[in-house]
Amino acid sequence: MSLLHPDRLFPADSTTREIARSLFETVENLGIVSPHGHTDPVWWGENPAFENPAALLVQPDHYVLRMLVSQGVSYAALGIGPGAESDPRNVWRTFASHYHLFRGTPSRLWFDHALSEVFGIEKRLSPETADESYDAIAAALATDAFRPRNLYDRFNIEVIATTDSALDDLSQHHKASESWSGRVVPTYRPDAVIDPEFEGFADNLDLLGEITGCDTGTWNGYLEAHRARRAYFIKMGATATDHGHPTARTADLTPSDASGLFDRVRRGTCRAEDAELFRAQMLTELARMSCEDGLVMQLHAGVHRNHNTAVFKTIGRDRGFDIPTQGSFVEELKPLLNAVGMDPRLRLILFTLDEDTYTRELAPLAGVWPCLRLGPPWWFHDSFEGMRRFRQMATETAGFANTVGFNDDTRALLSIPARHDVARRVDCAFLAELVTSHRLDEDEAFALAPQLASGLARAAYNL
Amino acid sequence: MSLLHPDRLFPADSTTREIARSLFETVENLGIVSPHGHTDPVWWGENPAFENPAALLVQPDHYVLRMLVSQGVSYAALGIGPGAESDPRNVWRTFASHYHLFRGTPSRLWFDHALSEVFGIEKRLSPETADESYDAIAAALATDAFRPRNLYDRFNIEVIATTDSALDDLSQHHKASESWSGRVVPTYRPDAVIDPEFEGFADNLDLLGEITGCDTGTWNGYLEAHRARRAYFIKMGATATDHGHPTARTADLTPSDASGLFDRVRRGTCRAEDAELFRAQMLTELARMSCEDGLVMQLHAGVHRNHNTAVFKTIGRDRGFDIPTQGSFVEELKPLLNAVGMDPRLRLILFTLDEDTYTRELAPLAGVWPCLRLGPPWWFHDSFEGMRRFRQMATETAGFANTVGFNDDTRALLSIPARHDVARRVDCAFLAELVTSHRLDEDEAFALAPQLASGLARAAYNL
Amino acid sequence: MSLLHPDRLFPADSTTREIARSLFETVENLGIVSPHGHTDPVWWGENPAFENPAALLVQPDHYVLRMLVSQGVSYAALGIGPGAESDPRNVWRTFASHYHLFRGTPSRLWFDHALSEVFGIEKRLSPETADESYDAIAAALATDAFRPRNLYDRFNIEVIATTDSALDDLSQHHKASESWSGRVVPTYRPDAVIDPEFEGFADNLDLLGEITGCDTGTWNGYLEAHRARRAYFIKMGATATDHGHPTARTADLTPSDASGLFDRVRRGTCRAEDAELFRAQMLTELARMSCEDGLVMQLHAGVHRNHNTAVFKTIGRDRGFDIPTQGSFVEELKPLLNAVGMDPRLRLILFTLDEDTYTRELAPLAGVWPCLRLGPPWWFHDSFEGMRRFRQMATETAGFANTVGFNDDTRALLSIPARHDVARRVDCAFLAELVTSHRLDEDEAFALAPQLASGLARAAYNL
To answer: Per the structure, how many domains does chain B have?
Structure first.
């Protein structure tokens, strides 16, 4: 018995399932286009072996950590933070003994997919099978076949984007391109030099000045430094920028007001409102730069980071305590959109964790402003039900062409094929339902399926 | 092959589909009751021929414009605004070459319905079929059979409401009733003389005074002018009023506070907060008038109009750049409801573009206040998925009887039969699902289907 | 013909329906665990006969009242308030003649279930059957078999919780435990002595002091009084507290700030903001007490009570005019969670009437904070569609283990079996859909079904 049923995620109705199956057959083996994600550039630059099953599959996965913590498992038992368990096999056993918690979650689908497809393990993880799967995975990881670049080939990845600090030298991307045929492109993520509330903001601006030779003590020098860095990222293959902001607020100040705001921010004397306004203004400035240099903008807004102060202090970021907040885009994006939103050179892809905004704001906005596109369901919504709701809620107003296909958005390399598999299945199921209810002709569904699988992503990100 | 499948929009499950089909057979041919819409009274008063396919089907349709603009088509290419393309055939070709953008949208369903049912065209619109369909439609429009009054008969319309400024003389309604047996009723829409932020508000009040002979320089004279105009609309067949407000806020000031507020508003010196309060107070005043004269109130709240300032300035209103905003009704409606909400003579129909309010606010409010009814899914939600969500979210708390059937709400005459067809199909599908899951007996579904198709609308609007 | 179809609420697809049926067979006859509800303790202490059909089934049911009032039936015609109809048979006839209003609502499902399963009546309620059913029910109520304790046995209730004021002496619970084997446990509901805006708050605190012998004139004495009352409730079987607050706001003030706030509140001089802050602070204080004494906390936030002022003044509370408000939990719960949220002794169960918060806030919060659990769909969402949406929206992020099974939350004794029946059917249907779409293996669905039916409730509430 396999962990993966060939008809998984397809509709129950037999006619509709048959159509979904036929559609999926046409996209199942298309190469993976991964325009937004968080794989470690070191993997591509140095192609190291992965350490052990726990370090690869449990400890870095915030979805897994949060579920285990929610049911009373300590970070220490997972080998993280003060008093950490040091034997990865014990961490794996703890994971295995709580594997039932993941029933009905996307983590379960992704993990079963990795077990079955990547490691050829067909027994469900449990306390009984923990050691057996640990040994099998550990043995596999010791072989060359399971090094990152070989997995890239095996996963049929066509291109993959990383997400990189504006201050990064991209040396690993350089190494990768020098020594390997895989296509790994960086993404310009300037939060550390745009958000006055980012740790070390002032130092970051100093460093930005050093790297670029621009005077980041002045507004114009600071903007010039961004342009210089963007040019470097573009040279290294980048086609996009990414912005993680607390809100989607944008602003369009006069140059002198913007310059004055920068001076306050630069001195480190600004209040929270100034910080928010500076982030807002910078989105519009960056949109202007995108018109010039062609980098596609991505905006990920609306997360309350590190909700648990103690965990943040003792263990750090990205441990599962990030929580979505209410989204709001209509007034927020208006300044940017009225400044550059009709410029055919701009493309701005929006992401949200607040599904209420799909029908109320995002689909109506993307369904008229030519620069806007809707990113796929993000993070907690990168799931069967989440993707279904997105298509059901966004399509009627925004159509398919104003969406950008799938992002796997992950640092979990082994889940990448699983995530694309889920997305392709859900999209084929949705198309099949449109056909069965005669909202779409069958030939149109077959035209759309490869677009949703990779075509829209390739086009939206200029890949 | 036909563009329209007889089972379109019905459930996939064969048992449920069979029930939906049987229900639909009983309502398919019922006359159309259209209690809220935006057809041009000139059509009914003067029965002109339509100009050409683009002017009829593309240029006035803001759903179509917004989708084309969102994908980079210019207004000019659509024959609108500065540098407009002057040949309607070229506009049509542009539309045809982008027709794939409408896959999965209600515009597609409506347009295919019009092609097939109104013009007998059974080929999907595409660059290849553009000229053929243009010629066929243009030829049809040149014949008497495609003049508005003949279409009224052919569409089996029983009664249709227009939406008319409080300052309108309703001369076209007069002409229509003098020379024709169709039933076209006006609706009293006083935004221009209620909203202090409306362009030309002061002049509008002057004109309102001239028309009515009331002194619109005083609060009491102003209210009297509304009563006079309402009486005229009622004489011309009106059974309802309609109010498009930025929010659902209401107020119940003392007469002297209201009078003082009016004085500030009348002088044109009021601030935004006074304008909002005046609109709020007027909703309560109008509700009191409705208790006296029996006009049914409709409140359409929560739209940010003209989000694109440049498009508004160069091309004008209703070009696709209206975006929904967050809805909120509980505190907002409380003053009005506590003033007159238990009066059995009042009926207030609520519309929203924020679906979150269906289960949280609107169904609970309409499920207890006797004056309240829920309007059908509005605008972006006048769609297969939108209607399904509405029934799934509103029915359990508000029941069917607190809803008012369907509104086509359109200026697109040719889409009227399509829109009612979609609504009837979705409602029959929903009823069939209740039957299959044994939440409703079959005889009850057959009793409800004609109510949802036209009975509730006729009753709610006193038509 | 029966009012109840054996396959009701199961999926239409035959394969899925078959799985749902098999799952349901394993839980259908499990004892009822009812950890949160509002049955009258007098029923359990004194086991009285119920008065008449209207007094039992119509007048106390706010779902029924609100729907009838929404369609113009007066409270008086229902035997409530000024000018009340005095003949319960006439009240019953009024109900029967409006029974069609309940089509598609949970009230209809619950009422049909009671008619059929409790009274053996298999004819749908209508004007024609009103007298017949009235007579049959009245005759049944006159027999011992229909007294509360016999119904408890017949309904296969294993344990039922009531909700009791902190000031209650629990004498009925005492009587019940002395003279009967049924398990009825109280729940500590201290709103009257925590909410400074509660009617008679100062007097309530005086009474709390008298009952406990603590000095409720001081902050420490006041806290001590809570501890004393909680200990008494625990002695009487309580395992949980319940808190009905306007918002989910919490606070974690310094002891001296908290004490100063209490002094202002105690003097009755506090403003609305102080009242809100006091409620917020008390949630954190009560969470600390829960860490000590083990009572499970429940928070029901976000209702605008008594929206209709006139009905509240003339007829009172709980007559149908309570309306949900916007929910918000992320910032609100942060102080409490950062104070005690990682304490393994704390369990806090959250309820909402704002479904938007399921995916945006509640599932992400409960999916990581170890103290948090999600209560089942509450009030207006205690329904087929409401439960489906909850599972579809919460499961992928929170899993099943962070939910707590079903609460019937009712004062309507006869609806208890119906409500659990609906919940079990919807959950089995959801599990069956997971199986059919291969998101869950069949053995796992069989393991989960009894957990959802009663196991999770028993565990979450320590019952």
So the answer is: 1
Å between B301 CA and nearest CA of chain A: 13
User: How confident is the model over B401-445, as pLDDT tens digits?
Assistant: 999 999 999 999 999 999 999 999 999 999 999 999 999 999 999
Q: Is residue B408 part of a domain?
A: no
Cβ–Cβ < 8 Å for C456, C405: yes
- Write b or e for each residue in B99-128: b if 16 or more Cβ atoms lie within 10 A of its Cβ, otherwise e: bbbbbbbbbbbbbbbbbbbbbebeebbeee
Tokens 């409790």 map to which residue? Answer: C118
Residues A19 and A110 placed together within one structural domain of the fold: no
| Distances, alpha carbon C260 to alpha carbons C189, C219, C220, C255, C281, in Å | 24, 8, 11, 9, 12
Per-residue pLDDT reduced to its tens digit, A410-456: 999 999 999 999 999 999 999 999 999 999 999 999 999 999 999 99
Q: What is the pLDDT of residue C2?
A: 87
Contact B344 C310 (CB under 8 A): no
**Inter-chain residue contact C309 with B338, CB threshold 8 Å:** yes
- Among B67, B307, B390, which residue's Cα sits nearest to residue A397? B67
* Residue closest to A397 by CA, chosen among A433, A427, A419, A367: A367
Instruction: Give me the CATH number covering residue A187.
Output: 3.20.20.140
Q: Does B307 touch chain A (CB under 8 A)?
A: yes
Q: What is the pLDDT of residue A59?
A: 97
Q: Are residues C449 and C321 in the same domain?
A: yes
Do residue A65 and residue A39 come from a single domain? Answer: no
For the residues of C194-205, what is the DSSP string, one character each? T-TTSTTHHHHH
Rounded Cα distance, C393 and A384, in Å: 11
pLDDT category, A1, cuts 50, 70, 90?
Answer: low
Residue C129 belongs to domain with CATH number: 1.10.2020.10
Check whether residue A297 and residue A210 sit in a common domain.
yes
Asked if A210 and A221 sit in the same domain, the reply is: yes
Question: Is residue B141 in some structural domain?
Answer: yes
CB-CB neighbours of A203 under 10 Å: 11
CA distance A161 to chain C (A): 26
Task: Give A159's strand partners.
Answer: A33
Taking the C-alpha atoms of residue C160 and residue C143, their distance in angstroms, rounded to an integer, is 23
Strand partners, C165: C189
Contacts with A, C 329-348, CB within 8 Å: 330-331, 334, 337-338, 341-342, 344
**Does some domain include residue C3?**
no
Q: Give the confidence band of B1 by pLDDT, cuts at 50, 70, 90.
A: low
Shortest Cα–Cα distance, B47 to chain A (Å): 33
Residues 49-108 of A with CB under 8 A from B: none
Is C1's pLDDT higher than 70?
Answer: no
Q: What is the chain C residue with the closest CA to B372?
A: C70
3-state secondary structure of A354: coil
User: Which among B16, B345, B349, B359 is the top mutation candidate for probing chain C, defined by the most C β-carbons within 10 Å of its own β-carbon?
Assistant: B359
Q: A95, A79, A88, A80: which is closest to A130 by C-alpha? A: A95
Partners of residue C71 in chain B, C-beta under 8 Å: 370, 401-402
Establish if B357 touches chain C: CB-CB under 8 angstroms. no
- Look up the domain containing A256 and give its range: 14-48+152-460
Q: Which of C2, C100, C323 to mutate to test the interface with B (most CBs of B within 10 A)?
A: C323
Contacts of B344 in chain C (CB under 8 A): 72
CA torsion through residues A231, A236, A239, A243, sign: negative
Which of A5, A104, A307 is facing C334, going by the closest CB pair? Answer: A307
pLDDT score at A79: 98
Is residue B140 included in any domain, yes or no? yes
Q: Residues C154, C209: one domain?
A: yes
Cα angle A285, A286, A290; round to 5: 120
ipTM of the complex: 0.97
